[in-house]
Amino acid sequence: MKLFIDSADLKEIKDCVEMGVVDGCTTNPSLLAKVGRKIETVIPEICEIVDGPVSAEVVAIDAEGILKEGRVLAKLHKNVVVKVPLIAEGLKAVKVFTKEGIKTNVTLCFSANQALLAAKAGATYISPFIGRIDDTSHEGMKLIEDIVAIYENFGFETQVLTASVRSPLHVVQAALLGSHCATIPASILKLLLKHPLTDSGLEKFLEDTKKNAEKAK
Ligand code: E4P
After folding, report:
1. Is there an atom of ligand 1 within 6 Å of 4 CB?
2. Considering only CA atoms, which residue is closest to atom 5 of ligand 1?
3. Would you name the residues annotated as active-site residues?
4. Tens-digit pLDDT profile for the chain (217 aa)?
5. 209 CA to middle of ligand 1, Å?
6. Domain locations in the chain?
7. Which CATH superfamily is 2-215 part of?
8. H/E/C letters for each residue in 59-121?
């Protein structure tokens, strides 16, 4: 399973990359607004840190505008994946991008039918937003299960990129369901590491090493 970092913050991206567990990165307009930086400057910098696909999102909502913006983004670096909203105009653009060899991440997916259409248009990745579905009192993870099954039924090559991840449980559930990738905020990625028995076990080993150093003098 590929783990992507869901961030536009260079410092936290670098920190997670150094742990050796990051396969790619996703950004969106809200994450860019959080760091207050322009897409055309931050994406090349992320690509220098992350050795893998880096999603950069268009903000146009007509096919022509999406194509124009996406082609500029794709030229920023060979690893750029153009992130396109799951609307009819977006799918029209995805079809053209696919023909041009530009990779796409179709975003804002909230239903299995939307994911089916994105795959048919040739999307490289589909991003179902699990946390936002949970927020509406529906089970986000059921959507991952459905999309994985549909893609497997028909041999679609589109990769399921579980997004809007809010907890370590989302990550393990997505992995068990066979989601190809998950994009995870740095704070959640760090929580994946956490186990109280690891901490207490390490503390005991260090304590015993100290005691032994005194004893073995
Ligand atoms: C990533 O591709 C998505 O834009 C992101 O995971 C959305 O997360 P949010 O629902 O926490 O904003």
Report:
1. no
2. 164
3. 83
4. 999 999 999 999 999 999 999 999 999 999 999 999 999 999 999 999 999 999 999 999 999 999 999 999 999 999 999 999 999 999 999 999 999 999 999 999 999 999 999 999 999 999 999 999 999 999 999 999 999 999 999 999 999 999 999 999 999 999 999 999 999 999 999 999 999 999 999 999 999 999 999 898 7
5. 44
6. 2-215
7. Aldolase class I (3.20.20.70)
8. CCCCHHHHHHHHHHHHCCCCCEEEEEECCHHHHHHHHHHHHHCCCEEEEEECCHHHHHHHHHH
